[in-house]
Amino acid sequence: MKCILRILLLSCALYFTEATKSPRKIYTSTRVKDKCILDGSEESKNKVSVTVSGRICLPWNSLSRKNSSFRNCFHNYCRNPDNKIQPWCIVRKRNRYVQEYCDIPHREIKPTTTSPPTSDPSKQDTESTCGERRLKPLTKIIGGSRSTDESQPWIAAIFKGEGFVCGGTLIAPCWILTAAHCFPDGKKTRMMRYSVYLGKNAINETDNVKEQQFNVSKLVVHENYDYTAEDFNNDIALLRIEDSSGQCAVRTDSVRTACLPPFQQMLPTGFYCEIAGYGRHQKGGFEYSRYLKQAQVRLISQNACQNKYYSKDEVNKNMFCAAGRDWEEDACQGDSGGPLVCEVQNTMFLFGVISWGKECAKRSNPGVYTKVTNYNNWISLHTGLPKYTAGSRYPQKD
To answer: How crowded is the C-beta side of 385, counted as CA atoms within 13 Å?
Structure first.
């Protein structure tokens, strides 16, 4: 009897043991079939899950909607899937998901043996991939709204030393288009004192994951811009940028090029476009905005611009006007050089460079912009990029 009882108990034990193991076996075989792509390397031994700011990393599979490759990555350990300068992870910051570098002791940081991402041409925008962006605005340029670098990924922040100077627009991986008046020393400008940042959300904060920093290797101010006349005619300039390794901008969600429209192309009166910048965001204010801002402005006819709001002496053929609805939105000091971009069939084209205006967001005083499409040939001459200046992405009439 005891023997029979022992056999029954042993059978029950084996049954329940196998029953509890079955799901685990299925789970294990699934994980073997679809391994987490972040594991399997020497770096996977790292168990750090805290960033340099003290935030706790989120599980990688929380990004699976944006990147299905992470769907089997259930841990939150710091990894380096894209060969940045050190491992990073995703954290939640101000109701947004952002990348942050991890708090890893220096001895654990190993230099990458792969080529820097900037050396890969496939990671740079071309004339056929310009004008694209992933996100719409989340939330002043005066009267405007809080923006993100993903919403205006072509905007550049130009600094002289530690001080912010002007905005600009990335039109090719190595070239920024901006305003001539941002460089009052003209040809005597000491370029080694200048730097350019792309992917910057705030001019007094640094995000090492999203931002790209560059030196200025060349400045080209339009030869017919007259610093003594102060009439802002030909208020346009080019900056050639490169990083410390001699490479140009890498295409990311935060850094993209804006397209150039064809020569002398313009949009109809009343068309709404976007301006963006880090300049003053309050009438009569003295401080620049901390954050990138953007606003919508409406194109004003050349006739009204030259005869109703200004004179032909003030606004010539190389300029155009735009103003916000009810005169509430406008560019201001500090926004100079930044973009006026217009969306045409889901592609963003750079039509204007923020140039000048009388006061800010004042009724009957629209902002004045350099008409970029008057300068396609000039841009092509100095950049050697005729394909970019041809405006090939602009819709062609049948």
So the answer is: 22
Reduced to 3 states (helix: H, G, I; strand: E, B; else coil), residue 9 is helix
- Share above pLDDT 90 across residues of the chain, in percent, rounded to a whole number: 46
How many other C-beta atoms are found inside a 10 Å radius of the C-beta of residue 145? Answer: 15
Residues facing residue 291 across a β-bridge: 202
At position 297, the amino acid (one-letter code) is V
Other CB atoms within a 10 A radius of the CB of residue 320 amount to 28
Biggest CA pair distance of the chain:
115
DSSP 280: B
What span, in angstroms and rounded, lies between the C-alpha atoms of 247 and 118? 6
The pLDDT, as a whole number, for residue 66 is 65
Mean pLDDT, consecutive 10-residue segments, the chain of 398 residues?
Answer: 48 40 27 62 72 81 72 84 71 75 52 37 84 61 54 94 92 97 91 94 84 96 92 97 93 95 94 87 50 89 95 95 83 84 95 90 89 98 96 84
In b/e form, how buried is each residue of 107-123, taking b as 16+ CB within 10 angstroms? eeeeeeeeeebbeeeee
Q: Give CA–CA dist 65/312, Å, rounded.
A: 54
Q: Using CA atoms, how far apart are residues 112 and 42, in angstroms rounded to an integer?
A: 12
One-letter amino acid for residue 45 of the chain:
K
Domains assigned to the chain:
45-105 (2.40.20.10)
- What helix, strand, coil percent values describe the chain, rounded to 5? 20, 25, 50
Q: Is the dihedral of CA 224, 229, 232, 237 positive or negative?
A: positive
Looking at residue 241, what is its pLDDT?
97
The pair of three-digit structure tokens given for residue 284, joined into one six-digit string: 């009569």
Task: Retrieve residue 387's tokens.
Answer: 């394909």
Query: Active-site residue numbers?
Result: 181, 235, 336
State the pLDDT at residue 89: 83
Rounded to whole angstroms, the Cα distance separating 373 from 52 reads 45
- Whole-model pTM: value is 0.68
Q: What is the DSSP track for 182-215?
A: G-TTGGG--GGGEEEEES-SBTT---TTT-EEEE
Coil, helix or strand for 303?
A: helix
